[in-house]
Specification:
heterotrimer; A alpha/beta; B alpha/beta; C alpha/beta; A: alpha/beta; B: alpha/beta; Nucleotidyltransferase, domain 5; five-stranded mixed beta sheet; four-stranded mixed beta sheet; 8 helices
Amino acid sequence: MSQKSNVQLHMLDRFREVNNTFPNTAQILELKRQGKKVFGWLCTYVPEEIIHAAGALPVRITGYSQEMELEDGNAYLYINNCSFSRSCLQMGLRGEYDYLDGVVGGSTCDGARRLFDLWHYYIKAPFHHVLTVPRKYTQRAHDLYYSQVMEFKQRLEEFLGLQITDEALCQSIRVYNESRALLKSLYDLRKLSNPLITGAETMEVLNASFRMPKELFNEYLRKLLNELSTSGNTHKSRARLMLVGSVMNNPEFVESIEELGGLVVTDELCSSTRYWSDPVVLDGCKDPLQAISRRYLNNFPCARMFPSDERFNRILELARDFRVDGVISQIIRYCVPYAHDLPLLTDRLKAQGIPTLALDVEYGTSGSGQIRTRVQAFLEMLEAKRK
Amino acid sequence: MNALGIDIGSLTTKAVILDDGHILSSSIVPSGDEAELGAKAAMEEALNQAGFSSDNDLYVVSTGVGGKSVPFSQQQKAITTCLARGIHYLFPSVRMVIDMGAETSTVIKINERGRVSDWAGQDKCAAGTGIFLQQMSKLMEMPLAEMSNLSFQAKSRADISGTCAVFAESEVISHVHRVPPTPKEEIAAGIYFSVVTRIMSLCKRLGIEKDVAVVGGVALNSGLVNIVEEGLGFEVMVPDMPQIVAALGAAIVARENIEKGIK
Amino acid sequence: MIISSEQKKNNINSLIRTCRLLARMSRVNPEARKSETMYYQMLADYYTRVLNAQEEGGFVAAHTVFFPTEILYAMDIVPMHTETTTWLTALFLRQQAELLSAGAELGLVSEICSPHRGVAGAFSIGALPRPDVMLWSNLVCDNTAKSGELLMEINHCPGFFLDHPFQGSEGEVKYFIGELEDMIHFLEEKSGRRMDWDKLAEIVAQMDRQIELFREICELRKAVPSPFPPMSFLELLSVDYLYPGQPEAIDYLELLHQELADMVREGKGAVSPERFRLMTLFIPPMHLMGFLGKISQEYGAVSVVEPLFTRWSEGRLDPAKPLESVAKKAFLIPERRSMYGPLDEHALKDIVDSAEQYKVDGAVYWAFMGCRHTCATVKLFKDILSEIDVPVLTLDCDIVDPTINSEEEIREKLEQFFELLEDR
């Protein structure tokens, strides 16, 4: 059974505070008071560094932290769009994101693009931009995406009435790369046979990473890494698990798995490895925009990208590196790209001797009832396999 | 000639006799297995109350689930048309009607002339209807009226699924049998909230516009109406006899036809 | 499960037989349109070509919806439209349940749009012949974009994914032209056939004419009463989907145009009396088409415009630039405007303009539960249409699963809607 952390991790509490108060996080509101601009973004294909380099704060648009009745979301997006998009839209319609100076998205999936269409018509942020994101990795695709990133930069400059210099971009890249490196260090602590941090705790850190100024986040995370290395909180488990699938922000779901004795040692989610995995590769300060655009398109793939094997291969790599016993796939109802990938992904994992538990969820689920029963059975099966 | 409107619902059949601008009488009888028999019974009852003999000269308009099964009616109209007419007669300022019947719930938008401009129904799922509430009251082992009164005392609400009647039912059972059991007033409030949530989605889809009226048998449940008002953020109008609004509307259509000389 | 090649051929054979039968029946029916007869014959010929391809050494490319099949025709490659083929066969042979459960067995969850589950199911049980290559694109949704890889695995054939960019900027058009070039290279390599650029230019010229004819036909539908037969817009679309830039399509459209022009001149409507002019948003369930035709006649209700499918954007094609024109067409197709790309003022204005130009009394939105991105516009379109006082009826449905909506249910709701329209 996993041991509960017995040493208080103060920095984790700070992250929790950021998350529990989102979207009205103290740091965000303070920046607004100082006259800074805040831009909401959706999807890992939006190049955050551009916003950061413009001196603005990028904040990720997420939905409610719990599974909710989504009356407004259902009315506007209809019941068959994923509960993530409905949840985000409802928050927007109810004014919770009114402080945003703009919203930026990618043409990534149907749910996201319709969310943006309706946001544009009914909520009307002062600045609204959608980047076309190709689905391929060809040179041509890179050229297209680069031109999109360029266009986004230009539109942002126009809106803010300033120039985003190469130096500013390089500085932002440094800050973001540091974030990525720190998160990698955090994940390295989960590679251990007895990881120093749980999956649920990691999710708190990840959620906070896109809800506060990156510099401050880096500072907090450095402190947390220190705390962890001296805390002696190690976690044993019945099985080492990887969580994959749709966007997920509720740590309670991970907690409910970990309470049963499984330990989520790694994950492949929009909010986790698909967000921070790859650094921007920069040579001095040569053509930072090109470097940024290359990184974002090549980053750990969303299921929308083609060929799907790119995603599958990276998942298999993660599974190997973290010595994963089993995979739990959680897919939000109507999350189409991930649902299509599931049969092929399950086969690929099976070929590596890794079983998959496939769960249908709604966004924000805390993982009670039926889900617990199925996870329990899965863990028992994995334990038996170990023997 | 007098105007008679009959609304044949799945549980009850209602009839209203309308004179030149007055409701002369109304009746509510069980529908039974045959629509025609229920309709006849409702008609007889209404005639009795009005002091008319059964061979009175009547123009009959029928509506409701069994609206087409009444051979002695001259015209059949959709329930939405009748609800709109009926509520417009009673409260001309109403622009949105929430009809909570035995098997279905419908939200209707009406214009200033009492005509339907839009509607949305919830017929693919049983949650949010009279029959569902009856089942819940059985699980709670108390009559509907008692459950309604109790809900006002709730300080918080039990979390009951708004998505599916089957889930809702099993959740209520687990709340009742929990150790210690969830306070009954909280379960009641939770049940009503789950019903109202689904209605709210429909309302928002159509665009909420004041004044709003709640009709149908379930409107007698003041605890539920209270939660509807919480959901809307303002008070709603409930007629004294919310079950007869559609029958009244049908009678109004009959009245219009008589005046236009339509056979 | 080993499917004999006989069984595979049987499905297509049945399809061809049914189409020929329908063509025969249409031909001997004095009331039937000659264009309808031609349509059924075209369907029969299309599938005959697919059936014979493998025997005659032809090369068959299966493809998804809204695909630039002009390229295939110019390379003498036989196209097989997966969705149309699957669902026509299912409809005629009543195989819907079988195909959908085969799709489920592949691990495709029920939230994945039923046409796609069915296509995958159809290939997996051999109800569709195995193609030589699988071609798919991301028009217009994630389901289409993600369908190809599984289909390649099921059919053990190579495939190509055509990536349509989201918007129509210069860089994006260039990207798309590049994608088409890559696809041509892929096809040349796999089929051993070369692109005939002269033929493509010819096809583009025809396609330009085809679009013009389509536009003119839609103009004729504005007449009061409207001449276009109820629920026949699918016929109109299918001709475009199956025979783009082909002489058969031109012949059909010219004939249809003549028939409609005659009716307009004589003041004749498709339904008499014409009581309700309707806008159709998205498409009705396939198995209800005949029934809806009956309802149209019964209630005097006619669908005069289907903005998501019948309103082409402005623009002409230039045979002197064949590849660019094929690319351009992909941006002009009606389906792109409201169903792909950002939903801008333009797209919304088009819906409102259609309602006004076609003198629409009311709109019926077929909210297909598997189609997320069109359902996301239910409220939006309802709101913009209510600004010009056009009521919208929303019907939750499934377009290929016949167990979801019964005729009674649809009849009841339509009746209620017609009553609303009359009562106003």
